[in-house]
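Notes, Module 5: Reading structure tokens.

Key idea: the token line is not a picture. It is a compressed description, and you learn to read it the same way you learned to read a sequence, by spotting repeated patterns. We will look at two proteins. The first is printed below with its tokens.
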Amino acid sequence: MSARARVEDAVLLWNNGRLEGAFLNALIAVAATARRRYPDRKDRDAFVGFLTDAMSVRLSVEYRGECQPVEYIFYKWLRCELVHEGAIPVDIEFMQEDGLSVRAGGSPEYVLKLSLGWFHHLIGAVAHAPENAIEFAARKEHPS
């Protein structure tokens, strides 16, 4: 299992404007790292737990009528949808912002908007995870 290879693939896709593929590879790297950190947890619990560890604040947002932790949204509505359906839901969009922001759009769109800064957060969490230290030791700089 190579989280570093997934991060490198994600950055390559990102740099070529392939955002969904970049996010998918970043989310796979998160899942692999989460499995290393929490080998006895179920996939969702490990994934959400790893992302929760990577955040200094708890952030929840309304999506499809329910207030959900952002970590769960990344698991259920990005990772699972990309893996099982091949695309993100039509009511999730990326915003051209670098920071970590989320907008829960109301009427008439009802679209959840995620800043592109989340991509950098995901790969940064993987690259700096102690579980991946050996893989990322050869390259000291941040992979993105």
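Here is the second protein, with the sequence above and the tokens below, as before.
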Amino acid sequence: MNNQLFITISNLHWLNNDSVKDLCSHGKVAITFNNEEINELKNEEFTTSAMVLELMRTCFSDFDSKSKTNYLIPHCGHSMFSVKDDVNKVLILGCDNGFSWDIKHDKDEVIHVYKGQEVIMSNSAWMNQILLLVNQVEAFYKDVKKEPSNEDELGYRAFWNEWELLKRKIFNTLTSNIGKYQEKC
């Protein structure tokens, strides 16, 4: 069946097995777009924590792969900075490698465009898929005590603050949609 998009993460790890100093999770990413696995991702590793944050952002805003400086799936995440000292918004800087596609919102649908092909899915289907990735990355971070350097502390805190705000917003949106659906029945 066409018109599907699936994203999976595997082999989560810390660089150099450093679970204390490495602030970002890393791993393999696979994307199936209209029943075809995207080959560009197969032999690469990506910064999965930054990827999931970027994908959470797309639950509420469009993403134009041509005009963004960040990738949806960044290869690296060298540095994290709070945006204009806002402890609830983070800027993650990485290398010039990564992977993206266009994401547009139209009413209750999310339209994904990659190499001229489209996948159209409901907002709730997209949010549910993102929450699966959120849960996977959070489970990987569970029970790990991070020790960011003084220069990384504010950015690291902003990362998790924005993460939690977006996760809560996604969850609240999904639960309010359930209520609207139940009212119609």
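Summary for the second protein:
- The CA atoms of residues 28 and 43 lie 8 Å apart.
- Residues 5-184 form one domain.
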